[in-house]
Amino acid sequence: MLKVKDIMTTDPISVSPEIEIAHAAKLLLEKHINGAPVVDATGKLVGILCQSDLIAQQKRLSIPSFFTLLDGIIPLTSMKHLEKEVEKITATTVAHVMTLNPVTVRPETSIEEVATLMVDKKLYTFPVVDEGELVGIVGKEDILRTVMSDQ
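RE: above sequence
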């Protein structure tokens, strides 16, 4: 049975939380990658930046629905959620748009488990972590290459 260690990219392109979004977007496009691990100055994984995080910046801000009760306005969505949306839309650095605490996999994780995570969680790029250290990255193209090699 194939494992993540058999198909992962062992030297992933990573970005720091401080770089500008435009630079990060250009990097993802030029390298033809869906996402990149975000690492701090010590090399610790702090998040992941995916194309979908960058696309979210372009979405329309939805004004929360509310109702009135005894002349008071009660929002139907949390203000915290609205604040997060505004922060992503107005972000200038990777730190503001990246996904914190990304779902990670281990080198020993089976390909079937990764495929299941991709489908169930609608996530397509996973940092590979071994004993707390970033050792690679695996994405949907890696899985597809494996499927195609069986043909």
